[in-house]
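hi got a favour to ask and not much time before my train. below you get a single protein, a line of residues and a line of whole numbers that encode the local backbone shape. could you go over both lines and see whether the tokens make sense for that sequence. a few lines back from you is plenty, here it is:
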Amino acid sequence: MLKYIVKVVDQDFIKERWSEIESLITSVFKCSNFNDKFTSERPLWHIQEGLNGSLGTGIKHVIALSSEDIILGAAFCIPTHRNEGETSCDLGWFFVSNTISHVGRIRVTDGIGNKVYEELKKAGFNKIITEMGTEAGAKLMQKRHGYVHEPQGEKTNRWVKIL
């Protein structure tokens, strides 16, 4: 059975492990069917936006690590600071390594998702409104985590999860 831990990390962790993260993301997304005009470079660009402060303050990341300290998956750019009056937030990219079994991927996905939701609730958010980067990601998050497809006007790739 796959043994792993899920933890919240700051920007320094991501910067220190950037080459590993970049390699994993490139591998995971290289054959993906993307929604909208997203490309395989978009996750890396978005994470860099979080690292350079363009996404605001309080940005953290949720990482799943094997017992050997190998990154198995992550959710990036999680807001842990809520401005007065904010009730919803957007999230960054999510991935799970394609080197682990299907069952392992589901377990890691659930572990990361649950930690993300815990952090968002602690910050005072009650809803996620986001876009889904890939078709497979949208199907998985709809089925396993209760995201609902709620297009609004020209925003056809709009997904909502009540926390």
User: Anything to note?
Assistant: The helical segments are 11-16, 18-29, 42-51, 102-123, 135-145. Residues 102-123 form the longest helix (22 residues).
